[in-house]
């Protein structure tokens, strides 16, 4: 989606940065040129601009052999750089202006943005292409422009993500920035208790949703009424007095609609049966997570997993519009997990697929955010290693096999060791064994063979460098073990 908000040069710079971010090693300039179907001279020019603007932040280097890499790949830094790329974007500026100041003509918008009418005509086509995959449209009424959603909730969710991500960009400005602390106070005192809000990210989302809703209600766009098994208390004048001064014409019933839209993210159950059904599914999800990863959940983590499932279900009931517009940090967090622990990533994806099938979630909408939240709330997940059965065979006898196993165990940490099952065998024992259930063999004699098992050769008295070589080899075996079929 972000490509629609950038000019051609900024798009290339963005793509180059992503390629560099996703490559662990230096990459040839020619390879980047081929990937982007752009001349080598253009790539060099773009890299020169990137180096001038952000080289010191990224620790960017270009070698004599025409290879380039960046050593700092922090997601928040990338978000900042992308913000700088799109701050001057005409589509972004016009979309923002259309949201805050609807019902102006093309000429009026062009004058405010200091661009020509023809530029805005082209921009309109660009934005309409963006919205083809979203339930949002640019509408005209007597040649005056405004925005509508298939449902009002769709549009409000889109602009919540749009403004929330824009707010971190350098130079980004929104009307009434001092209203946000007051909105936060109203949310935690009138709508949700503090223990119903998991962390700052969620509170920021609710603040911007409230903020977006204030403008939409003020502009005359009413939201759909909602019904709850457990109704929300009615808004009083006193409870919203700190906000009413910014929007003096808003009525109490409009504030009630705003409050209910936020309340629905946590309490939007039609009836007790619906809540109980999803809660039961959440417990099954938690059980599957524990069984497939061997992770131990404390009471707080167990409650979090159940609450997470319930909230993504309720969020999707409200709208299936993506909440990220420019740079989805959940996505990049998830992709980093995929690179660092492929087995874990596969298991979490398969468990999510089971969950989405059972309760009717969009297959992709929450996938990366679920992986993000599970990993940060249950950090031990990131140390997941699939169970491996290792057979140690020594032609010097069983005692030497035990010695070799102890030497190996000394270089592994607890989280690695607890997933490894060692079996020690002499050459005589090995000749009579059924080895079908083993994942790896360690031997000290190259004459010992096996038709299918991976084999690692170790010296009679292994040195440190050899032991660490085994550790790297073990990591490769771990990544190859994909025991995630039929996980549901």
From TrEMBL:
InterPro entries: BglG_antiterminators, HTH_11, Mga_HTH, WH-like_DNA-bd_sf, WH_DNA-bd_sf
Ranges for domain Helix-turn-helix type: 12-52
Keywords attached to this entry: Transcription, Transcription regulation
Keyword Transcription: yes
Entry superkingdom: Bacteria
Keyword rRNA-binding (UniProt): no
Residue ranges of every copy of the Mga helix-turn-helix domain listed in the record: 75-162
Protein name in UniProt: Helix-turn-helix domain containing protein
Lineage: Bacteria, Bacillati, Bacillota, Bacilli, Lactobacillales
